[in-house]
């Protein structure tokens, strides 16, 4: 279980995260929504252990996240960042195998190689295994990074998967596939937390949605509970209509047209 208790994160006199509390259990996919500057990335860095809160606590499986060593934490949670800088011409297989580093000392076992191949199949990058990572498109690189993170936690019960804008550089097919993978992992008992900008994708895949504004948690609940025209306006300041797909019972929104008047001089 992941517990965030009264998290506050300040830089100087500016509060980027303000008194946020929530928990997530194994088997749950939580999606965090909010406009630019809402505090999503700062909250993500706190949850991953990259930053320590100014006030408040984070517990992972009953232990303060700050109490884990780097090696211990690598065996409990995987982090998919929005940007992953690689300057050397590693092959795709080498990048994905990096995810298995926490699981062996000198050389990978057969199991490690099998897991790497399995997650490359799942993410659709197996055909790139011998290619240089640097020759891939941005979307292809993002799928390789997803495979790397999946390889890291694939055989870890109740692992935590953190994903920061995982579909930002992907086309429609792989946006759906990536979130379908996240949903599948949650059904296998993983805890999955993902930051998204796309409200409709959140409504389609999330078990639970947290909506942030000005560093605070404004709404927390299922898509049916939080995706309303009023709440979307409160958080994003855009007028919209929210509907329920009668076939899937999933919620989706359609933004209303924005009219601008330009006065010529």
Automatic annotation (TrEMBL):
Protein origin, superkingdom: Bacteria
Gene Ontology molecular function, alphabetical: ATP binding; ATP hydrolysis activity
SUPFAM superfamilies: P-loop containing nucleoside triphosphate hydrolases
Record domain ABC transporter: where: 2-239
Keyword Transport attached: yes
Keywords: ATP-binding, Nucleotide-binding, Translocase, Transport
Task performed by this protein: Part of the ABC transporter complex HmuTUV involved in hemin import. Responsible for energy coupling to the transport system.
Name used for this protein in its record: Heme ABC transporter ATP-binding protein
UniProt source species: Pedobacter hiemivivus
Lineage, broadest ranks: Bacteria, Pseudomonadati, Bacteroidota, Sphingobacteriia, Sphingobacteriales
